[in-house]
Amino acid sequence: MSRNHSSPLRPLVYTALILCAWWAVPSAIKGLVRATFYECQAPAWTALDKLAKLQSVWTDKTHSRNVLADSGRDLARLNAAYLLRIQQADATQQELCKMEQMLSLPPLPEWRYVVARVVRRDLDTWWQRIVIQRGSKDGVREGDGVVYRGGVAGRVVEVHSTTCVVELVSSASFRVAAHVEGDERPVTYVGMPAPVFRNPGGAASNVPADILASNAKPVKLVTSRLGGAFPDGIDIGTIRKLEGEPDGLFQRGDVMLSPDLTGVQEVAVMIPVARQGSLVSNPDKGGN
Q: Could you tell me if 253 and 261 are in contact, meaning their C-beta atoms sit under 8 angstroms apart?
């Protein structure tokens, strides 16, 4: 009777050979394989997101008519408030255009908002990255800013055909130019890793020494147009305490982000209108 004399180390040898062969593969082929694998996974993520939306629809149908009526009244109030804000924004925009014409100033950059749903969020990168259902087919490019109802959500770092990866504002590698609301002097914002079971946060540096912040009177940190990816004035977070930096000229402080970032489900990608116009006028350059 024959015996199997296979060595227990054979699987390890095969694994080492495969790793060595993969290490010898050119970087271009590795990138192609990674992109192809990603594009194959994207439809599954989209399908799961649609199933979740379908489940929520059927859940809503189980609610009583009184609950639905109350929800409709709440939505009507919100719509009225939003319409009023839109009118105020239009009036402000008209005044701004008049001032630009009077002073012969170049117009500020305009943005087009592309709404997208979050289709994937891994537990190990909960505060670092999300995947949204917009990609190169929708005009999204790397570096585009991403916002949500709580303010800045992050920045696009990877773009695929129908999806893209967003680096969140709470990621340690996220950095953006900012300023304190009501003060135009530039401030640097950097994301910070969030502790377990804690809300996300960040840090602000180069804060002018004459700015005061406390729990009773926190200051709001907003985006600056100097960064390029965002317009001026979008909320980042709040600062409740400032302390002097070693150079003695500036201050730094922790930035509390909106807790809504924990369960964000819909975002909007900010696409510059000027880039869209250049693509339309020059279809041979920078197309799909």
A: no
H-only helix segments in 25-160 = 27-61, 65-103
CB environment 128-157: b (16+ within 10 A), e (fewer): bbbbbbbbeebbbeeebbbbbebbbbbbbb
Burial class of residue 218 in the structure, from the number of CB atoms within 10 Å of its CB (0-12 exposed, 13-18 middle, 19+ buried): middle
Q: What pLDDT does residue 98 have?
A: 80
Contact 159, 130 (CB under 8 A): no
| CA nearest to 196, candidates 264, 263, 124 | 124
| Whole-number pLDDT of residue 285 | 42
Distance CA 59, CA 97 (A): 47
pLDDT exceeds cutoff 70 at 249: yes
Length of the chain: 288
pLDDT at residue 241 in the model:
93
